[in-house]
Amino acid sequence: MTDRSLVHDLYRVSAAHPDRIAIVAERADRRPGTPPVRVSYAQLATYVERFAHALAALGVGPGDPVAFALPNGWESPALFFACLRIGAEAVPVLPGYGARDLRVVLEATRARVCVVPDFWDGVPRAEVLAELATTLPWLRRRVVVGDAAATGALDFTEHFVRTPHERHRRGAWLRVPPDLPARVCLIVNAVGLDDTHTMTRHTSRSLRAGAGAGAGAGAGAGAGAGAAAAAAAGPPGPHDVAPSAVPVALLPSLLHTVIGPLLRGGTVMLRDVWQPRRGEPAPPGGEVGGLFLVPVAEVEDALLGHPRVAEAALAACPDREHGELTCAVVVPAGAPPALTDLREFLLARGVARAHLPARLELVGAIPRDEAGEVHRPRLREHLQLRWARR
Q1: CA-to-CA distance for 67 and 90, rounded, in angstroms?
Q2: How many CB atoms are located within 10 Å of the residue 285 CB?
Q3: Is 17 helix (H, G, I), strand (E, B) or coil?
């Protein structure tokens, strides 16, 4: 029985189905008429190998943590498997984390490299990382997707995507660590209700167990079984497509919408921002929040019970320190309520402290669509413009 890592399983699936689509990446800012990014299994395997050599070129080796705080896209899965390939430890970070929480993760993991977008969700992420890096001596490289020159960072596209490091490496082919299946390959961060961060470490074995027995070679089935299953798999059906707008930095999303489907030869569909299209249902109740997912419908209903609230809606508001905060947008009924009044009122109604709004925006009217529902994209744009001026 041969013990293989997840990256070996991915390479076997890629060899069996090179032309099958592995990842479809949908971007909210995609121009009309432009198709989403599609990455085949052959392309994914190529990028994993290239990214692995790109990391090695930066001095990353076995056991070195590599953090990446990116919105959902094909780059994060490729970086994850590239870390596995060289024995490094992948540290996916929620893209909405602000300076305080990103610092906690980088300090706890001692990440050698950190990859961020230049600008995301109303916050200049590259600038935030550049400011943090001055006090993080172990952080060797800042890598930026987008405009890297503005902060003196390494350009992700140039170094990772366009440069064929795998063809020009001096000496032998990049060595695969022999103990790869048992080596820590992933560090997952989670935040508790008291704002404390916990770090959980995983190996290829624990991730395979978490993704389910159908993901590649099961722990007791041997590597050959996984290869045979991948080779015998036919064209993917509807059940082999895994859509997700939940950040892959969260372990359940990474396991069940990335690792599991890819090792079964399915198609991963990632969306950086959940934006409802015509005829597409919203998630039940809806959620907002960077550190905590806040049940929108529940809190909005509770707010409407306040005697000085005529209309209410919740929206995520960008914040440089925390990434984003929950904002209560209120049309007053008479004398405007204060934020402290609303928070005390919600606590008395049984709303969890972690779900309380951190900001209050008083407006004359809440934007609504033709059906009379809250027009949340327009509301979010309004908040971004308002708080950008403050």
Answers
A1: 6
A2: 12
A3: coil
